[in-house]
Amino acid sequence: MHGRSIRTHVYGWLLLTPAAILLVAFTHYPTVATLAQSFFTTGTATRPSKYVGLENYELMLGDEVFWKVVDNNLWYALGTIPASIAIAILMALWVNARLPGRGLARMAYFTPTVLPMIAVANIWLFFYTPEIGLIDQVASVFGIPGHNWLGDPDTVLGCIIVMTIWKEAGFFMIFYLAALQSLSPELQEAAHIEGASRWYFFRRVTFPLLMPTTLFVLINAVVNSFKLVDHLFILTKGGPDNASSLLLYYIYEVAFSFFDESYAATLTVVLLAVLALISIGQFLLLDKRVHYR
Amino acid sequence: MTSTSPLERVSHWETAGAWLLALLWVLPLLYAFWSAFHPPEYATRFDLLAPLSLENFRTAWSQAPFARYYLNTFMLVTSVLAAQFVLCTLAAFAFARFEFVGRDLAFGLVLVQLMIMPEVLIVENYTTMSRLGLVDTITAVGLPYMASAFGIFLLRQTFKTIPKELEEAARVEGCSLLQILWKVYIPLARPTYVAYGLVSVSYHWNNFLWPLVITNSVETRPLTVGLAIFGAPESGVNWSVVTAATLLAVAPLLVAFLLFQRQFVQSFMHAGVK
Amino acid sequence: MKTSITRLAGACALGATLAAGSVPVAQAATELTMYYPVAVGGPLTSIVDGLVADFEKSHPDIKVNAIYAGNYNDARIKALAALKAGDPAQLSVMFAIDIYELIEQDAIFAFDDIVETDEERAWLEAFYPALMGNGITQGKTWGIPFQRSTIVMYYNKDAFRDAGLDPEKPPATWDELVSMGKTLVKKDASGNVERWGAMIPSTGYPYWMFGALTMQNGQVLMNGSGNETYFDSPAVVEALEYWHALGSEHGVMPSGTIEWGTLRQNFLEGKTAIMWHSTGNLTAVKDNAKFDFGVAMLPASKRRGTPTGGGNFYIFKQTTPAERKAAMTLIRWMTEPERTAEWSIKTGYLGVRPDAYETPALQQYVKEFPAAAVARDQLEFATAELSTYQTGRVRKLLDDAIQSVLTGAKAPAEALGAAQSQADRLLKRYR
Asked: Cβ contacts of residue C124 below 8 Å, gap of 6+?
């Protein structure tokens, strides 16, 4: 719209520069620097850093904890993403319909989103505490024996997943709500006239129309499944025996508890690679299936 | 606003289910209220006749400098938001209205931040801050977020929808570029600014990992980090005091949310739909 | 005119010389910055502020800026970060086990290199030897004890009576812990456990609790140079087998891991009759227990044993000689018998030197509250806390091994063997 004069180019870049500086400094440069750092050892005052090529990666591949953490993260993603999306759709459908008290319901569903995870983690710690915690207290009312939820490597990841679903579903509900409200009511009327059941209508009409939202929410959920580690600091610190540790938490531990920046950088490269793969996938998928403006 | 047709009636079972889910969803918050307002003996015992008490709040307030934490969080959130408004507006304006060389590539690089957030780069960003001498400052907590890809994306969308005639009209009146931005684009994008503002405040009030890494002292710590440290002493958890502290930390957002529920929800919807 | 100016200049010069001459030779006050952590709940910061104020009153030429740095981890990070940023503290209280990290970063002085007078050299010898364990390496003293603790056994006397046991005779041996523990377990009608016999926490700081069990079995976990560990020695494996058996075989403890943070609450609620925990919890238990409780030394296997815990004073290298002297003055003042007695009474930490317990204040306190003396008496059997180079990593190896055994995932010999070989790999280069 502005003629492509020199002024256009100059002004364009000038306007972009402030943001660009910060973006390069804290996103693009660190990404490259992390990759570079992963080829060196961590330096201390008495033992300076030196180039070691792929040695850190070899160490990583031989690191039992690394594989456990990756395994956990995959289960974490698998556990949180479908469940939180499904619950979000359900919530959105309910809140959108003529549910009595839907204002209150919507508020209740959305509340976890405004609360910081770290703050609520202590409360969930109480829920999961054996004997005196809420879940065990309720269970004992029904005569079911209690369980060491966070201390049992078989159940701890599940507990973390449940808390994450609780945090996420309300947030995704909002996007679905927006999408549902943009659907035309005539479709529903037509379907009713045709005698279609609500489930049929949902399956063949509503859900396909929600596809763009689902894809958007899916990307969000996947990225979050690598980002949301706050609750680990209070609930389990990654234990027992790394049964609930996630990649980002392990990175934090290695960098700030063990002070091994190079190994942390190596681990970060893995995380970045995964995120890059996802964004490429998103780019390809989105372009093909959905038309955005 | 809503498009509920008279056909979308909900069965009793579904109503019960929805309410049960809602109850489950607020359960943690309900427990926090219970535990914070009752003496420590009742933290795990749900005796309905238990006496109410404000002692936990007093203890929490005296055991950690919450006033300072509030101040830090407030400064953090406002400085980040102000910077985001300025930087993202300028960048979005460039992307929306200028066809400059390398624009599409630049926009692609900007979008990288949607995936690769500062949280993921804590190790290297800490080193950068260390070199800049900014470790343990509130500036350092907000700096990586001030150029927000999400903000640029949203504003660019919004700016693109503004009719060019308005800009032409302003041009005719002799406005410079920045004046056009100020008089035409920004006012018309107000809903986006409000929406983005609420999302940003929410996000940064609740942010934890990066602030944990980059702050060391009371003068810079935001509420989330203060609460985490408070709630995890080597000797053990005292739920009554910890939940009181938690409520103190989340109160502003919670109250704001309860009062401005519609706006909150609308903002997030607005931010996501695009 | 010229004369006036000359006169004025002369007067000024004279005035300046006189003024300079009359200023006392002593320099402006030396300023010290000190970081300290708080690891137990309570208003510790105000106690420290009080101590600092007292010090400044009696030492007007030294000004102290004591900064609360959070927990032990925070304090170390803060101190090292300030060092790197070129704005360092002169001294700090930090985790006793940080010693090798600080040496590796070339951050601290050995006190032997700073003490000048015979009096100061004698002062280095005034502390409980058990507390010096974590502060001495390479033949020199690097850390001076300040806020130190041990593990003690808290027990519910009412529960003992309820189970028909003598409330004045807590378990003194591993076998008694098993037998009395079994007696103390109370089950309800449907066979669910209402009260456990004992609980030893295995999250948070499992290596610390384990250090007690291994010392009781006669084995230390590492050497005094920070470059060798003994995780797979038979006595250590046996200790882990015992810990595991308490839960899985004897039913004295719940199986699986026991949460550190909620243990005190569990004890106060009567969910366990015995708990192993830091002396730092003494005041909290005293104030909140609705039952008659006792404090005892940990039971013996081949001998009694407990690790020490807590924080030491360190002096940093980036200091001027004047600052170093001032820091020494402060540290010596803080560790005088009266002061350390006052600190112990107010916080529950140990008095760090024998003559502190000779002071009237502590003598009175111990008379009124005998439980406060248990930790001190146990010092005779105490050993250093697990500390090596790369201490964070090595500790985690042991923590993971312990937790894998307690959750039934691995056998003790296997888990500890793996931990030992990995620790070896890390520590080899320091030998």
From this structure: C111, C112, C115, C141, C144
A120 at the B interface (CB within 8 A)?
A: yes
| Cβ-based contacts of B90 with chain A (< 8 Å) | 15-16, 18-19
Beta pairing, strands C306-315 & C91-95? antiparallel
pLDDT score of B4: 46
Collect all residues of chain B within an 8 Å Cβ-Cβ radius of residue C79. none
Q: Are C405 and A153 in contact (CB under 8 A)?
A: no
pLDDT of C21 reads 44
Tell me how far the alpha carbon of residue C270 is from its chain's centroid. Answer: 28
End-to-end CA distance of chain C: 80
- CA dist C359 and C376 (Å) reads 14
List all residues 6 or more positions away from C35 whose beta carbon is below 8 Å from its beta carbon.
C67, C69, C75, C78, C79, C82, C89, C92, C93, C94
Q: Which residue in the set A45, A131, A151 is minimally distant from C256, CB to CB?
A: A151
> Is residue C274 a contact partner of residue C181, using CB atoms and an 8 Å limit?
yes
C275, two tokens: 């708990």
What chains are in contact with C, requiring at least 3 Cβ pairs below 8 Å? A, B
In this predicted model, what pLDDT tens digit does every residue of A48-78 receive, in sequence order?
A: 888 888 889 998 998 989 999 999 999 999 9
Closest CA relative to residue C252, chosen from C317, C191, C184, C305? C184
Task: Name the residue facing A268 among B1, B109, B121 (closest C-beta).
Answer: B121
How many CA atoms are closer than 13 Å to the CA of B228, on its beta-carbon side?
24
CA-CA distance, C272 to C325, in Å (whole number)? 50
Residue in the structure block whose two tokens are 């709630």: B231
pLDDT more than 90, % of chain C: 51
* CB-based contact A149:A128 (threshold 8 Å): yes
Cis peptide before B163, with omega less than 30 degrees from 0? no
CB atoms < 10 A from the CB of C244, how many? 19
Residue C81 has its nearest CB partner, among B40, B216, B235, at: B216
**ipTM higher than the 0.85 cut:** yes
The reported pLDDT for the residue numbered B93 is 92
Count of CB atoms situated within 10 Å of the CB of B206:
23
Contact of C160 with C176, CB cutoff 8 Å: no
How far is the alpha carbon of C226 from chain A, nearest alpha carbon, in Å? 16
Interface of C with A in 213-252 (CB under 8 A): none
Tokens of B53: 């008490």
What is the rounded CA–CA span in Å between residue B79 and residue A87?
Answer: 36
- The tens digit of pLDDT for each residue in C297-322 reads 999 999 999 999 889 999 999 889 99
pLDDT digits (tens, 9 = 90+) for C63-112: 998 887 777 877 887 788 777 767 778 999 999 998 998 898 888 999 98
Output the DSSP codes for A96-141. Answer: HTT-TTHHHHHHHHHHHHHS-HHHHHHHHHHHH-TTTSHHHHHHHH
* CA gap A258, A248 in Å, rounded: 15
Q: What is the mean pLDDT of residues B25-35?
A: 91
Q: Is A195 on the interface with B (CB under 8 A)?
A: no
Which residues in chain A have their CB less than 8 angstroms from residue B231's CB? 122, 234
Cα B259 to Cα B204: distance, rounded to the nearest angstrom: 20
Residue closest to C415 by CA, chosen among C180, C269, C244:
C244
Is residue C312 helix, strand or coil? strand
> A293 CB contacts (<8 Å, ≥6 apart)?
none
